[in-house]
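testing teh design pipeline on a random one, pls ignore if ur not involved
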């Protein structure tokens, strides 16, 4: 399987929105994203202005996964992957690309919201990669995990 990775562009946004509705866990339709304030326009603007940097993974000329972060806060906002591309290390590569960028931006601590249910894939995925619980939960009951990229060799 040939996967290429590149910085996301505003033109990638529609494919990313469609992909998010096809993920195995935590899928969000375009309508649900819009209810949360994430629209095609807001996502494109964030990419264009640099406040929402991200990377996409591409296979067979289509986006099969992506990861975006908030440049102002150090939050990893979303990591999404089509189910048929799971377990190949693609999510880890996408996440590490953002981590390296945010480390270069000067962030010493990154964070994200993750399911607190040990049965979900994300629960084990992030913890396996060194993310740790803060003991704090957000408004949708996701557990806030943190990561300190400068302390990891």
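output:
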């Amino acid at each position: 399987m040939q996967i290429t990775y590149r910085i996301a562009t505003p033109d990638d946004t529609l494919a990313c929105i469609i992909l998010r509705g096809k993920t195995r866990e935590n899928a969000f339709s375009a309508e649900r994203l819009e209810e949360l304030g994430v629209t095609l326009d807001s996502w494109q603007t964030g990419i264009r202005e640099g406040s929402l940097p991200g990377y996409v993974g591409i296979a067979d000329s289509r986006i099969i996964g992506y990861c975006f972060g908030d440049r102002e806060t150090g939050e990893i906002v979303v990591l999404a992957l089509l189910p048929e591309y799971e377990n190949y290390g693609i999510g880890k590569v996408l996440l590490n690309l953002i981590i390296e960028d945010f480390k270069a931006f000067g962030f010493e601590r990154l964070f994200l919201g993750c399911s607190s249910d040990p049965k979900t894939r994300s629960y084990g995925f992030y913890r396996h990669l060194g993310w740790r619980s803060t003991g704090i939960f957000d408004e949708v009951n996701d557990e806030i995990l943190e990561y300190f990229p400068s302390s990891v060799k």
